[in-house]
Each structure stands twice: as structure tokens, then as C-alpha cells.
Amino acid sequence: MLHTITVRPRKRRLGGEQSRALRLLACGPFGVTEAVMHVHGFTRPLLAKLVSAGLATAQSETGKTIAVGRIRITDVGRRAIEG
To answer: Which residues contact 54 (CB under 8 A, 6 or more apart)?
Structure first.
């Protein structure tokens, strides 16, 4: 006897801090620096979770004297905070 099982992807449930971080990222058209995220109380592990879940991207930008990490929200992240 053959049974077919259909698996639908589960909707992600965002925690309060994750949702707050994504809302802050959504405000900046070019993303937000990692330093600004830290000032608002977000930790590196939280930001890493957002990136690994595909809700945000991280990029390193090197200037003349320092390297700056910039975090951007993805389309998936925008949909997650919209509903």
C-alpha cells in the first residue's frame, strides 16, 4: 500500500527580539551597520540567527581605515514581519 504525504513548510514564528531587529533593518534602505544594531541591544548570536534563517544578509565593507559590517533585511524577512 502506497501513501503520499504532503509536507508544507512551517511558518516561522519570530521572537520579539527577532521581530524588533527585522523592523529596524527594514527602516534602512541600505541596511544597518552591526554597530548600530549593537547600540539597540542586539547581540551577534541573534544577528547570526537571522542571517542563517535567510531573514537577513551580512556584508563586510572595508573603508580606508576600518571594516564595517552591514546587515540587510531580505524579502523573506520582510514577509515574516508583515504577517
So the answer is: 74, 76, 77
Q: How far apart are CA 69 and CA 2, in angstroms?
A: 51
Distance of CA 3 to the CA centre of its chain: 38
The pTM assigned to this predicted structure is 0.75
Spatial CA neighbour of 58 closest among 68, 66, 14, 16: 68
pLDDT confidence of residue 20: 95
pLDDT at 2 over 90: no
> Per-residue confidence at 3, pLDDT binned at 50, 70, 90?
low
Give the CATH fold of the 16-82 domain. Answer: Arc Repressor Mutant, subunit A (1.10.10)
